[in-house]
Amino acid sequence: MSLCSSRCNDDLLALLQGSCGKPVSGVEIGRCLGISRAAVWKRIEVLRLAGYKVKSMTGEGYVLEETPDFLTREVIGRLLRGKIFLPHRYHFFSEIESTNAYAARLAAEGEPEGTVVVADHQTRGRGRLGRVWESPGNVNLYFSMILRPRVEPQHTAQMTLISGLALAETVAGIGVKGVEIKWPNDLLLDGGKLAGILTEMAAEEGRVHHVVVGVGLNVNAAKVAYSPEIQTIARSLGDHLQKTVKRAPLLADFLFRFEGWYRRYLDDGFASIREAWIESSGIRGKQVRVNLMKESFSGEALDMDGEGFLLVRRHGDREVRRVIAGDVTPL
Predict the structure, then answer these.
(1) Do 54 and 96 belong to one domain?
(2) Which parts of the chain fold into alpha helices (H)?
(3) What is the pLDDT of residues 130-159, one digit of tens each?
């Protein structure tokens, strides 16, 4: 397809999307795009072949009823808002080993902040502590963001908390209720895992070179898509809502919400988002199990301190522990 044709199709989509569900006549499309009625019909057929559902209404025109659930730059680029995550910084793969690994390579080569790596399927998806993140194809969201915040290395874990807050808001935005943020990096729904966040960095001598934040969100995968041990804990938006959820607008909305919180963080520090995270997580007063590298204990989650670490009053001796790293599971 020629560059001219591609632009024409982009303009056609913009016209149909801008009509807000009302039919647009072939005459009006032809006038706006400077093409003949026959050419309009051909462009409509190209969109249909690409997966767009366009209805022809006799005597009225064309209505865009449904867009395909693609995560390509062409689709996402039309949905992106904000100033950090831009279409030319968007990398899409139908299959890749790990979006985090690829993003880390790009970051090391100098790719700018706001670069996003997205995949329909990961063959070696990664979770925290060397765990595998199972990534069935064409149903969920797997993506990684390159960030270059001017913060101390010990504060890069706060990127995970910002991501969790933005992700919880995004999910709530499509009508999902009851989502919990599990400190520090998971989203829980209906007693199981809905999403996970993996944050990795490159730094030296007190200076952060880059941070890569990877997100895996279970959108439409059926339980049978996972291994038996994961089936018991995996939850998805589609199952919860009893319908298929479009991934592209979900991803674009997350990036927009993340940018808002991230800018607030850079301008005003972690204190500006701390209370919002605590409120969204409902962590205060929860009974939790804390699993550390060398020990485990249960207790009451009291608060999150000013650096994003969890304060837990241990059962038995009543000692208040500051949890810097580990798994914290609600009881």
Answers:
(1) no
(2) 3-18, 26-33, 37-49, 73-77, 99-108, 158-172, 228-231, 237-241, 247-268, 271-281
(3) 788 999 999 999 999 999 999 999 999 999
